[in-house]
Write the C-alpha cells for this entry.
Amino acid sequence: MMRRLTLIVVAVLLLPPRAGVHAAPPTPVILELFTSEGCADCPPADTLLDALVASQPIAGAEIIALGQHVDYWDGLGWKDRFSSAALTKRQQLYQTRFNRESIYTPQMVVDGRSEFVGSDANAARHAVAKTVTAAHGVVSIEVDGTRVGVAVSDLPRVGRGDRADIIVAVTESGLTTNVKRGENHGKTLTHAPVVRYLATIGTIAADGATSGSAHVDIPLDSAWRRDRLAVVAFVQELRGRTILAAASVPLENAHP
C-alpha cells in the first residue's frame, strides 16, 4: 500500500501544469550602484551588476539595475561624463539611512534596505534573496512618446510618520568609455545600465494609502540610443528609503 501511494505521489508531481495555472511573476528588486569612471575599484562592480542583470540568479527576483555616477571624483584626474551632483545627493541620503560616516564608491544598495561594497557578489546575492521575501506592491508603466504614466497598487504600508515618492528613471545599457586620465587611465570601461534621467513625479500619502498614480514628460536626448533605453519606476519611502514596489520596461517595447 505504501509503495502504491508513493508511486501515485510521484506520478502527480510529474504531471504537466494544468492549463491556466501560472507561476507567480518575479518580484522586481532595484540594485543601485554608486560608481565613477575615475575610481579604480569601480569597474569590477559594474561588471558584477551587468552579470546579475544578465543571469538573474535569484529565484523569484527580477533584478533591475540603476548605475548612478557620482560627481565627487570629477576633480581627481578624470571627469565622468555621466556624473551628476543629484546622484551624489541621492547617495548622501543613503549615508544618513545607513548611519555611515562617509560616502564611497563602489557602493551597492538593494531596494533601499541594505548596502555593501559594490563588487561583493556574495553580499549582492544574499541581499537580493532576502529582499525578495519582503512584501512588495505592484507598479505598471505606460509610455506614449515621451509621456510616461505610472500606476501603483497593493503597496505595503509606509512607515509611521513617513511618506513615499513615485520615482521614474531612464537607463541606457551598453555604454563604454575610453578613459584617458586618472586611476583608470588607458582602460576601456563597460558600464552597467547608466541612469540618464531620474525624477520624483508623485507621492503616496502617509495616511494608509496603498495605491496612486503619476505622469511625467521625459526629456529624451537625441544622443541616447533609444533601442538601449529602459524606463524604471519605483516607489520609495522618503525617510526610511525602503523601496516598496518597482517595474521596468524597455522603451522600445513600451505601450505606444
Notes: The first helix runs from residue 2 to 14. Residues 17 and 224 are 43 Å apart (CA to CA). The chain has one domain: 26-253.
